[in-house]
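> call design_seq(struct)
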């Protein structure tokens, strides 16, 4: 028998252009960062996963770091670690903990598409709990900068996690999803890619537009919103939940983007900052119709048994967005930064 080829050294296929690997925030995330730096297997106690707070900084950062291996990786980390069985084993354990927490919180959530989405299609009379409404009416520039810095962890990879579902769809759902994603990626024009438009927004706000730059400042409630997309996207068994997540984002995006465009204009954030959200008002209004009638409609026509998964994806998205809004508003109400460390002041 021919002996297996030796694994490449940690630097043999390391990603040169990936983001910087941040420090851990507890036993599990420290185990991940140490393993990625050294090329060794992660060292952690199994009991640590079982006892970890599913909403906490340690678990959410560990998951984020492991998921990022499927996107751009990290500077100096071997690309082959993406499929390292020991890292995948840890990721599975963390996902199980996260999913259990989600299902526990959503034990009474809707199980039909109609019940899940109908409340989102009507603009609420009372917008006092809306984060975008708060930013529109009384948000300050420093709060808009914090919001953009946090959201950059998704918007600089916008549409990437949802693209994973395309090979898992057929017929109407596949065609419609591909059409929406084509628009998200700039319809063939690199300067129109939504991630590029968000990078331009960050420049207007005197933020660093480098991919993953603000990971170290991002608290667990923000990491959870990005981890949810990655979790759903990387598992074919979660394709219904990913479609539900995507549909929820598109359904709620247009009115929220309209309010955020006004917030950027009122605070003098700059033309690119305003343009990013103005672009989403019209585009996502169209996307919302397509995703509901063609992506969800087409998927249910092919797989009617997947409806509860779609509803769960929508409910999980609402839950985590509400948790993030609560975190931001609680900090801002006290005049504090919602980030783990405040941003430097914008240059005049």
């Amino acid at each position: 028998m021919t002996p297996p080829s030796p694994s490449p050294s940690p630097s043999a296929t390391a990603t040169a252009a990936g983001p910087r690997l941040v420090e851990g925030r507890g036993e599990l995330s420290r185990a991940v960062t140490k393993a990625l730096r050294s090329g060794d297997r992660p060292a952690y106690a199994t009991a640590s996963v079982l006892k970890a707070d599913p909403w906490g900084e340690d678990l959410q950062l560990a998951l984020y770091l492991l998921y990022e291996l499927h996107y751009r990786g990290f500077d100096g980390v071997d690309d082959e670690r993406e499929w390292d069985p020991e890292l995948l084993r840890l990721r599975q354990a963390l996902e199980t903990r996260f999913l259990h927490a989600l299902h526990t919180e959503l034990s009474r959530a809707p199980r039909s598409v109609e019940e899940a989405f109908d409340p989102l299609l009507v603009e609420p009379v009372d917008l006092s709990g809306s984060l975008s409404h708060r930013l529109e009416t009384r948000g300050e520039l420093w709060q808009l900068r914090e919001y953009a810095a946090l959201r950059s962890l998704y918007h600089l990879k916008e549409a990437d996690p949802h693209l994973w579902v395309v090979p898992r769809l057929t017929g109407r759902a596949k065609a419609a999803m591909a059409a929406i994603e084509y628009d998200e990626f700039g319809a063939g024009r690199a300067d129109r890619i939504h991630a590029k438009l968000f990078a331009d927004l960050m420049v207007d706000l005197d933020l660093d537009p480098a991919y993953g730059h603000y990971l170290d400042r991002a608290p667990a409630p923000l990491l959870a919103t990005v981890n949810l997309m990655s979790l759903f996207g990387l598992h074919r068994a979660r394709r219904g939940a990913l479609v539900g997540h995507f549909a929820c984002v598109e359904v709620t995006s247009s009115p929220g983007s309209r309010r955020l465009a006004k917030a950027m204009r009122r605070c003098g954030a700059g033309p690119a900052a305003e343009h990013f959200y103005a672009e989403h008002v019209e585009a996502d209004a169209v996307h919302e119709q397509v995703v509901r009638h063609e992506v969800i409609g087409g998927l249910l026509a092919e797989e009617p048994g997947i409806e509860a998964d779609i509803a769960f994806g929508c409910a999980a998205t609402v839950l985590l967005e509400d948790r993030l809004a609560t975190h931001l508003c609680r900090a801002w109400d006290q005049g504090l930064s919602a980030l783990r460390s405040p941003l430097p002041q914008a240059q005049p």
